[in-house]
Design brief:
- It is a single chain.
- The chain is α/β, with parallel strands linked by helices.
- Helix content is 44%, strand content 17%.
- The mean pLDDT is 96.
- The relative contact order is 0.14.
- It is globular, with a radius of gyration of 18 Å.
- The chain has nine helices and seven strands, in the order H-H-E-H-E-H-H-E-H-E-H-H-E-E-H-E.
Amino acid sequence: MERELGLTRKCLKLIAEAGFPLQIITKSDLVTRDLDLLKEMRCVVSFTITTLNPKLSSKLEPNAPPPERRLRAVRKVSEEGIPVTVRLDPIFPGLNEEEIEKIVEEAAKAGALHITASTFKPRPDSWQRMMLAFPDFCKKTKDLYFKVGERHKSGRYLPASLRRELLLRVSKACEEVGLTFSSCREGMQELNTAPTCDGTHLLRSP
């Protein structure tokens, strides 16, 4: 619908006219259509890249563009001088964690400046969907979330020690390729190397 109607583009024009800063968080490479507007605005574009495996991506994120298209979009946006971040979110233990370092490396090669990472925090509805799509993953990790993990409102968290281990891997990978790092909703701000969780610190000054 967006490709046909261009409603988001119309909104972007209004935001640009008003001079508001903007962060776009997306999985879609359609954002490159609007580079003519975005490069004149104070904006940051954040792409979610959860895996580089197209088969895994199609199961985790049905109907979203495959990872290689998102990486190409990261490069195109970055080449226009627009700050780009990548959201490695969520991290699933035993499902996509083996890709952590490679995702960070490819994001840096494509021109990203910052990585935001978070671990999977299932609510009842998302856990049900994961049980249908990834029954083996759920069988292996159920106790981690529901017995030894933590509960925050309706969400379930992995044990703090395991979350720290995963996020430290992201942080170390970022340091090796010169990217800043932050995590969201993990309670581990001491691991962050950027002043904001979401990358909005990259917005140009007015």
